[in-house]
Automatic annotation (TrEMBL), chain A:
Keywords: ATP-binding, Nucleotide-binding, Transport. It comes from Streptomyces hebeiensis. This is Amino acid ABC transporter ATP-binding protein. It comes from the Bacteria. GO terms for molecular function: ATP binding. Belongs to the ABC transporter superfamily. Residues 18-262 form the ABC transporter domain. Transmembrane segments: none annotated. It holds the Pfam family ABC_tran.
Length: 266, 316
């Protein structure tokens, strides 16, 4: 734990939705995150870009505690991720407490990870019914509305194997939204899709952004980052190289590393 | 897309659409597979020879139907099925438990499970049955405090011996089958469930196990069939089941070999019924894994019958 970060965030207007201070993560001897500092404001669309292996996805997974950080502080909506602080001592959270916090954070994966043995509708209903104990009727009604919102009302009865990649990813977004999260994490949501299917998924994400959802998006879609993003961070080799407004960073990068990366992907 | 005005009165241009859709079917002399005719003739010949040999043998075939529905045989069939079901239940529950233990992060529980599987898989089930039966040499009586107290020999009835021997042995095999099933489910499924806020237990029950079942059911069906046949071993610990009753009848009626054939026929009948059940169970757990479910045998027969009524192709 760093000693500089012991002060709690005072009431400085709106408190950040996500705050990372000196976050480190390593797998065995591989040092993946080497001190990440960043803040994500509420209602912000925050894009993370960078070459593969730079630690973007790992950082995203730390936010909902799918990975445990080794050092630093990471908090969501003012509460530490995975720990409780009493005095200056940290206590690890129980599994059930971690699960409770994850309810408020939606996550969309590169490989969709829909439940293959459930229909699209059942996928979306699963968490509200099983985790929050919601009545089936109301969960079904909301699931139908959500599927309609992502343009798949007529596919409710289909199993994931009967849907295209783009449709699966939109169901996955609806599934995450069903828990009414305050924060959505997108882990390269369009990287596994055929180029012509990317647009539908990005449209759904654009709609979410317009509705004021706080989103952290790991992406290679520079067009999306420029149009929809409010903030952008370029990561390389486990550190934040450059950050700023997407338009500025993408059109006028300051660091050599950023320039060479962007020249390859743009 | 241009819409033709004529298109609206459908039937008028229907023949025009259909005309190019009928290509000339290829007519060719098929290759003759003479090897196939020869091998078929050899196989039929061998089969006929075996049937003839058995028909000629000094076996009183009439005794088989005469005793097929004998009270004792039916009681034996009942006992065999009961033993199969309960032993299998012990095996499945124990197997799931052992598989979860083996996959647990706790080194003590995982090594206990490993040791259990090592021991029960590594010794013959017949030996295990006999050891259970004779454990009275080690434990003279069983004492569960105020609840139960009795001599081992009167506590360990043949039925309990059979259940423990078969069930505990089966658990070791089922553990490996379940472990393979649980490991076959993609890790992304667990992550997605956790990300939605599901607990470990709920993830296992709602997401992992239903998918693991696709891998678990086929070998488990195998195990059930195996178990049904293995129950014949418990005749050695004085438990009366199908084979034991058949042998008894054989002794008294003077047709011991005929009764073995009778028992074999019953086992065959029971395993056939189980195979059908397994088919439908597999079909149930295939939900969502393929785009369309395979037809049930009944549906297939019906479809075949319907297509027989229709002229095939109708081209030449």
């Amino acid at each position: 734990m760093t000693t500089t970060s012991m002060t709690t965030p005072a009431a400085t207007g709106s408190r950040p939705m996500v705050k990372a201070e000196g976050v480190h993560k390593s797998f065995g001897t591989a040092h993946i995150l080497k001190g990440i500092d960043l803040e994500v404001a509420p209602r912000e669309v925050f894009c993370l870009i960078g070459p593969s292996g730079s630690g973007k996805s790992t950082f995203l997974r730390c936010i909902n505690h799918l990975e445990k950080i080794n050092a630093g502080r990471l908090s969501v909506d003012g509460e530490l991720v995975g720990y409780r602080q009493r005095g200056d001592k940290l206590y690890e959270l129980k599994d059930s407490e971690v699960a409770r916090k994850r309810r408020d954070i939606g996550m969309v994966f590169q490989r969709f990870n829909l439940f293959p043995h459930m229909t699209a509708l059942e996928n979306v209903m699963e968490a509200p019914v099983q985790v929050r104990g919601e009545a089936k009727a109301s969960a079904r009604a909301r699931a139908e509305r959500l599927l309609d919102r992502v343009g798949l009302a007529d596919r409710a009865g289909n199993y994931p194997s009967q849907l295209s990649g783009g449709q699966q990813q939109r169901v996955a977004i609806a599934r995450a939204l069903a828990m009414e999260p305050k924060l959505m994490l997108f882990d390269e949501p369009t990287s596994a899709l055929d180029p012509e299917l990317v647009g539908d998924v990005l449209d759904v994400m654009r709609g979410l952004a317009e509705d004021g959802m706080t989103m952290i998006v790991v992406t290679h879609e520079m067009g999306f980052a420029r149009e929809v993003g409010d903030a952008l961070v370029f990561m390389d080799d486990g550190v934040v190289v450059e950050s700023g407004h997407p338009r500025d960073v993408l059109t006028n990068p300051q660091h050599e590393r950023t320039k060479s990366f962007l020249s390859k992907v743009l | 897309m241009s819409v033709d005005i004529n298109k609206s009165d459908g039937p008028a241009d229907a023949p025009r659409d259909a005309a190019p859709a009928a290509p000339q079917a290829i007519k060719a002399v098929p290759v003759r597979h003479y090897g196939r005719y020869v091998s078929a003739a050899v196989a039929i010949g061998l089969l006929a020879a075996i049937v003839y040999a058995f028909a000629q043998g000094k076996i009183n075939w009439a005794a088989v139907p005469a005793y097929f529905f004998d009270d004792r045989i039916l009681r034996g069939v009942g006992q065999t099925m009961l033993l199969t079901v309960i032993s299998m239940l012990i095996g499945v529950v124990g197997g799931v438990l052992l598989a979860v233990m083996r996959l647990s992060k706790n080194p003590v529980t995982s090594s206990v499970a490993w040791f259990y599987i090592w021991f029960f898989r590594g010794t013959p089930v017949l030996v295990q049955l006999m050891v259970w039966f004779n454990l009275g040499l080690v434990f003279e009586y069983i004492n569960l405090g105020p609840i139960y107290k009795d001599y081992w020999s009167s506590f360990m009835t043949p039925f309990l011996t059979a259940l423990l021997g078969l069930g505990l042995n089966e658990a070791a095999y089922m553990a490996e089958i379940c472990r393979a099933g649980l490991l076959s489910v993609d890790e992304g499924q667990t992550e997605a469930s956790h990300a939605l806020g599901m607990s470990h237990a709920k993830t296992l029950r709602r997401v992992v196990i239903p998918q693991a079942m696709r891998v678990i059911v086929p070998p488990t069906g195998n195990e059930v069939i195996n178990m049904l046949k293995t129950t014949s071993l418990v005749a050695t610990v004085q438990f009366y089941e199908l084979l034991r009753y058949a042998q008894d009848i054989g002794q008294t009626s003077g047709s011991p070999v005929e009764m073995l054939f009778l028992a074999a026929a019953w086992y065959l009948l029971l395993t056939s019924v189980l195979s059908v059940g397994q088919y439908y169970l597999e079909r149930y757990y295939a939900r969502g894994s393929s785009r369309s479910l395979p037809q049930t045998p009944l549906q297939r027969v019906r479809a075949n019958l319907l297509s027989l009524g229709r002229p095939k192709g109708g081209m030449a």
